[in-house]
Structure formats: C-alpha cells, structure tokens
Amino acid sequence: MQQYDVVIVGGGHGGAAVAAQLRQRGYGGSIAMLIAEPDLPYERPPLSKDYLAGEKPFERMLLRPAAFWTDRNVDVLTSTRVSAVDPAEHSLTTSAGTISYGILVWAGGGDARRLTCPGHELAGIHAIRTRADVDALNIDLAGAARRVLVVGGGYVGLESAAVLSNLGHHVTLLEAFDRVLARVAGPELSAFYEAEHRAHGVTVTTNAQVVAITGTDGRADGVTLSDGRHIAADVIIVGIGIIPAVQPLLAAGAKGSNGVWVDDHCRTSLTDVYAIGDCALHANEFAGGAEIRLESVQNAADMAATVARAIIGDPAPYRAVPWFWSNQYDLRLQTMGLSTGFDETVLRGDPAARSFSLIYLKGGKVIALDCVNAARDYVQGKALVEQGVAVPADALADTATPIKAWHPA
User: Fold this and answer.
1) What DSSP state is assigned to residue 180?
2) Beta strand 331-337 with 170-174: parallel, antiparallel or unpaired?
3) Cβ atoms of residues 233 and 147 within 8 Å
C-alpha cells in the first residue's frame, strides 16, 4: 500500500494549485496527485478555443513542466482512477492499487454531461472536456465533415461554434432554452451573441429539444427535434454542462447531491477530506448565500489556496468574487460577479460598437458585470461587486464617468 500525507484527486487547475501552494508555503509532508487522464496537469479553457482551433499546441497548455513536480517531490500518478474512498481507514481504492492518505483533497471536477436520447451511443458524437475529447473531434473534422451540429448554447457551445465557423465549417447551434447563455446572463447579452453568431454564418436555433439522434451505419447523421424537424450533421458536439465527479465521496457518506458539500474552509463532512473546484457545493455570499457550484479557474484556484492554508495551520475562510471569461471571434467577454436574482440591468456603452458592459443590480446594488471588449469596466467593477455598492442606474450608464468614480472610500 502506498502512503502519503496529502493525496490530491484530480489534476486540473485546483488540484495542481493545492500541490504547488503547499510546497510554496513550506509544507514538508509527502504529496501525491492522482490524475485520471494520461497527461500532466494542463489548462482547460483553451480546449474549446485555441486548442480546438489548432493555434495552441498542447505543450503550451501544461500548467507546469514535468520537472516542476519532480523538483518539489510531488508524485504525479497519471491514468489513475479512484473508485472508492474508505474514510475510516483513510484509504482509496484506485486503478493503481490501494493508497492511504492523511489528508485527502478532492479536486475531481466533473464529466461531460451526455445526451441520453435514442442514438446517443452512435459514433461521431463529441464532448469538449478533455484533451482526448478534442483530439478525437479534430480527427473527425479532418475528414469529410463539413456540417457541424453543436447542442448547447452555453460558453463551450458558443466558443466551439465560433472556432469551427472561422475554420469554414457549416455550424448549426441548438439551444433548449429560448435564448443562449440563459443560465448565466441577461437577455440583452444573449441577443447580442446570437446576432454575432448569425452574422458569422452560424445557424442559431433556440427552443430546440433534441429527442433522438439518427444515424447511418453506426454513425450519427443528425438529430430529431421535439417539433419533428430533422437537422442533418456530419459531426455532433454536445456542450450541456457537467456531472460532478463525486460519486466515491457520496458513496462513502459525504454530504452532497449535485456536487459534494463543503464549509467555508472547503472541508467536506468526512474527517480530513476537503473538496475544491467544479465539484464543490458551497454557500456563496455573491449568490445571496445559496449553495452553488462554480465551474471556473478562479474558483478552483481560490479554493486551492484556502485548502493549502488550512493544511499548514493558517486557516482563512473562502471569500472571492467570482469571475469568468469567454473568447468568441474578436469578442472578449469578461464577467465579474454572479447575476443570479438581478432585478435591473444597465447598458453601459453601445453594442453596435462591439464594446459595452451590461451591469446587473439587485435592490439598487451592483452584483455583476458582463463586459464585452470593455476591460476597464471589468477591472473597475470588482470593488462595486465585492462591497455591494449602490449606484444610480443613470450614473452607471454614463460612459463619460469611469466606474471607479463610485468605488467606496
């Protein structure tokens, strides 16, 4: 049996950051990082952007070179999956054998959610969650495939549609809701991005419920919608979110459901077990105290810092303003805060100029900003969100006055 003082399950941004920060903060115990994939920790955001486009080689996506982990005595066990957790024995059942831990940090992220309708098992259906996913997709795209169908109008779906449209593919995007980005943004931003994609030749269809995938000779050739329409395709990409990879923890008795519950120090209900990143269900003050999961690099990194501090005996509760970004065509969307529960929006700037911000208010206080090619608004808006500053809507809309004018003293 292999034994380590700290075992980290997952090699994404969060897992890698825990290992790096522990060493940076002087932790001298043994550390192992267990990664289900065959690769060292790498960046995930480029998968639906630069890597899919062939503009960024995988080597440039590595979070750290191999020597970094060796030099810091972090054992990285790739192609290692965890199937069970024994919290009483402090041990893991893995594909590499039994591994015992003093402290367990679960940074397992999630698996791409798949369609479950008839035909979901056909070839030619892809997700964009791992390097292997995109490599397989690019093999398909390198063939005779010209018609690409993207299911899902969230960030991954829109980003991949933008890349593939730029590469000359005929792209159709289907969204089950009545607008794209429905879960994360206001109607004004949805309308702007739908118009941008259509202007670039993408067919955007909302209120589109996929009820079956059709195929020929074992390969998908399109989908059938609930209204009876059939959309033909050579390749199908499914971007409909993730399923948190926490089943071993839940089976071991950890509290949770859609993710694993953690407190404000990222501790689960199991002794000596922490969880961070996409799979961590936590009460977030920027969501009005609701228990949510945040799928972002920011959340993974900030939770990693929280856990590293707890392990070395310098605890500080997790508190960080959520932020996100998305690159589509020549548009850079930067989001500060969470717009959940907003009751008013303010348009700052001109969408026709392709540089503007949509500011979300709740009870008169700024809770979030979506900034399109408006980096200054994004940077200056953080203080307003962090401290819940109340600003009159007409003042926010005045682009002649910088947002920092309303920063608290």
Assistant:
1) T
2) unpaired
3) yes
Task: Please give the Cα distance from 108 to 303 (Å, whole number).
Answer: 13
pLDDT digits (tens, 9 = 90+) for 242-284: 999 999 999 999 999 999 999 999 999 999 999 999 999 999 9
d(CA 365, CA 342): 9
pTM: 0.95
Helix or strand (DSSP H, E) at 247: helix 247-251
Own/partner pairs for 159-163, CB < 8 Å, 24+ apart? 159/48, 159/49, 159/326, 159/327, 159/328, 160/48, 160/52, 160/128, 160/237, 160/239, 161/197, 161/202, 162/197, 162/200, 162/202, 162/328, 162/329, 163/48, 163/49, 163/52, 163/53
Rounded Cα distance between 316 and 253, Å, is 26
What is the C-alpha end-to-end distance of the chain, expressed in Å? 57
Side chain identity at residue 54, one-letter code? G
Q: Which residues of the chain are under the pLDDT cut of 70?
A: 144-145
Which amino acid type is present at position 12?
A: G
Q: Contact at 8 Å (CB) between 175 and 206?
A: yes
Taking the CA atoms of the chain, what radius of gyration do you get in angstroms? 22
Which single residue is written with the structure tokens 């059709």?
Answer: 214
